[in-house]
Design goal:
By secondary structure, this protein is α/β, with parallel strands linked by helices. An 8-stranded parallel β-barrel has the order 1-2-3-13-14-15-16-17, surrounded by 9 helices. Strands 4-12-8-9-10-6-7 form a 7-stranded mixed beta sheet, with helices on one face. Strands 20-19-18-21-22 form a 5-stranded mixed beta sheet, with helices on both faces. α10 links the parallel β16 and β17. The longest helix has 19 residues. The radius of gyration is 24 Å and the shape is elongated. The two termini are 22 Å apart.
Amino acid sequence: MNNKVKIIATIGPKTASKVFLKKMHKAGMSVARLNGSHNNLEWHKETIKLIQRVLPNTPILLDIPGKKIRTALLKHEPNFKISQEIILTSEPGYDGLEKVSLTNKVLHKYLTVGDIIFADDGTLKFIVSKIEGKDIFCSAQINGTLKSSKGINVPHVNFGGELITERDKFMIKFAIANKVDLIGISFVESAKHVNKIRDLLKNTDIKIVSKVENRKGLDNLEGILTTTDVVMIDRGDLSTETDIESLAFNQKNIISRCVYHSKPVIVATEMMDSMIESPYPTKAEILDISNSILDGATATMLSGETAIGKFPVESINIMSNISLHAMKARNLQILNNAEEPYNVMGKAISSLCRSTLITKIIAITISGFAARIISSQSIKQPIIAITNNEKLAKSFNIYSGTEGIYIKTKFYKDNQNHIPKCLYFLWNKNIIKSNDNILVVSLSFPGSGKRMNTLQTHQVRDLEKLFYWKKTKK
């Protein structure tokens, strides 16, 4: 809770163990991410169970591939030099020795000679020299190695097809069956796209993380923000699907709009890429993380650094320390939020927290709406979001500076009796203590359009005396 910025760490075969998970959590991991493009579903199923058993209060984000094109699983990962020919193919079954199979079976139909193909988040570049049947002959523009399950991008080429693939539908069913907390959707294009995903989730409590990583996503950002729960800026695909020179502007703009709409935003891809091999990040990476947080990022994400890297725990620990320093500067900034009623209430809460001796904020909420709005204000005090919805409580941990707590009690509409019950529950668990000055945010006598309409400030020691609180066995 010392670090307001959440750290999302990708779990790979190396780190999918009780020992590593505990070390990563202690170092500062807030959310455990699984990349559905790698490993098989049995591995993901077992890893989800492991995380739920070892870290029961840590949310799990399952990232599903969407329409993203990748290389197949290769027994032979070809090395090549500049100008060397390499053959990509829409035909499955090739292991990389002669040709490299792709996950898209019709890519050859959409390409022409001279098209530029990027691979592995834009680190590899090829030019199409000829197309024969399903085979795409390419000339390498850089020395490198084409590895298994790496992304393939062809900027400005529209491949058509359905917004949601059959594989996506299968993966969504898998996510529901295995009770993950958040689901990452690749190449989100519009509000319609998000709503189709929500329909497939069938009223479950799984939060949607919309990955903005192409031109359509940028063009329809406002619509996406009104429908999604969380946004992820996938800078690898975004830099290849658009102009890499505009990446910094696009990132800042997305963060700014997310802050405006009070939506959590994750910055991802190559944040500490050097730490896959090195025990220390570069100065540029430190500045990148810091600037993302200063701009308003809710979370930063580690991918290969924790999935396959040599220093997974160290990567989290260093990112956590960078985040703490960046937050000291960010706490001095005044964010320009929209003048919606709930944002006005958010600003009022922020003002109270800056001008009084509040030590903790208690958001009594069913859906987590209050916690999300309060967290968007970059308030220095920790936010305790208490709910009677057990499934949702864990997902509140995605919000900046927030801890979700479940209480088994009724929230009343015609009185406020549940409020002291919630406060006693927190006191009995030592989450709030005698010397705390708390700000309680709740919804009393709910009606149309009413949200966060009640603010209370209390010294906890006064509540102890007033209600004759006594500790009970936990």
